[in-house]
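Before relying on records like the one below, remember that each one covers exactly one chain. Contacts with other chains, cofactors or solvent are not represented anywhere in the record.
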Amino acid sequence: MEKGKINVQTENIFPIIKKFLYSDHEIFLRELVSNAVDATQKLKTIASLGKFKEDLGDLTIHVKVDKKAKTISVIDRGIGMTSEEIDKYINEIAFSSAEEFVKKFKTKTEADRNAIIGQFGLGFYSSFMVSDKVEILTKTYKKGGPTKAIKWVCDGSPEYTLTEIDKKDRGTEVILHIDSESKEFLEEYRILELLKKYSKFLPVPIQFGTEKVWEKVEGEKDKDGKDKEVEVVKSRIINDTHPLWKKKPADCTDEEYKKFYRKLYPFSFEEPLFHIHLNVDYPFNLTGILYFPKVKKNFEIQKDKIQLYSNQVFVTDSVEGIVPDFLTLLHGVIDSPDIPLNVSRSYLQSDSSVKKISNYIMRKVADKLEEQFKNDRKKFKEKWDDIKVFIEYGMISEVKFYERAEKFWLLKNSKGKYFTLEEYKKHIKDTQKDKDKKLVYLYANNLEEQHSFIQAATDRGYDVLIMDGILDNHFINTLEQKLTDTTFKRVDSDTIDNLIKKEETQPSKLDDKQKEALKPVIERNINKEKFTVVFENLSETDLPFTIIRPEFMRRMKDMSALGGGMDYMGNLPEQYNLVVNPNNPLICKILDEKDQAIQDKTVKQIYDLALLSQNLLKGQELTDFIKRSVEIIK
């Protein structure tokens, strides 16, 4: 037996590993299983080069829990190690930078500590986070020379022992003696949970425990004439060693893509709209499948659905920094060996290869959308309401994506017709320019509630867009910045003649003196804190009272409601303009009426009608209006 001391110049590094190195101790199993996979893959490579001529046999990696002995074992039949290799890879290399490691570790914030372990090759030592003793039993695949099996034991101090043992099979078994603080990992369900989280797509079979399955009995039928099935107990294989994203896109069917989506998201009851299969090996390696889900109104429900893998090892489902923010609404898998296993978010945001990956994914998404638009515009329109939010999010947040997406982003008008930006510009350029030659895009966000305003616009020969998406208020601002001599105005933000102001103005039947006389009559019958009385010279057929909300104030409040960083706007009271049309015969009648009670009753009735048209008449006021209306009918 040989005793030794790991070369730690400064202090015992194990307490740091045990308590602080990973924010989540469960990572130890990912590291050990990944090491076993690496050892197995290396042996397969050596065999393929003709340097190992024996039968590889069953290469399944076994994970075992012995609750009584308080141990977890990870066993592989990979390349194994000699005593010299243990000394090199376990005792020296992992700690060659120990002094620097300890020094750097102490200056790091907790959020950045996960980035350190990969830089210092400490993956194996993560096992000491949950163990008070670790054993390695290993035998090299090599023949001749010092090839006896070796047992390495360390109790979490810098001292270790190295002894020769009898071990028939090649490969490595790592045995963790679980400490009293980590008993949760001795529960089978917990290990199964971790294996399914981190190892479900590893390229080497991972076996853990057993499971009951139903199998057909060949040549036998049941009483109904169907193939007979019996329940059998089989070894449980955790992983799919050949996940769909590793295949060539040409070799995959639509049904396979749907089936794989259900495997990734077993509790999702909606089919994805379509997918993108990523497959590139230069200037970086990247494979994956991204799905376009039906985007719900709650963005946060959508996020954290892309799973990031490195060589089929699960890393994280928080991919901000790896893909542009708007792409975090997608679902699916990204796998790239160019993204290290242990990284901090700040590292990701500054890493050049990660930025290239991010730009590539964004380009592929734009390619797919443009291809769908060009190849089958009808089908693209059918999906539009589900993908619109996603595309707008990208156009708002990424300049490069905007430049691509403006070709296939669609506007929908109140008649249900769809236009690209270029098509719509041509559609309204002859009718919707104001006196300053500015193109005015009229829009509504509720077809039903704003029907009267939409009707007034269409009666003038104007076209009205439906902008009812949850991001449309933000997106309108983006479009106004991008499009020259263009403004967007909601149909209920002013009278139609003011929305698209022409040179000619409508004369008024009332002079300024008459308007001043009428104003207090109106103000005593309305909520003056909420409504400002303004006179607009409209046509005789336009309504006597119209309620509008000024565009600027409404946009600010809408953006605040969506979390636009203007929370103080949300605390402001609702402000509206009550537009009085002096050319409507009813307004003139009110002015001429000598009986104040009749005056007030008439003003109150047409004011309530205006409120009702905007869904603003509620409670006692609505009850009074109904009673008054019945009296008027009588």
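The chain has a mean pLDDT of 84.
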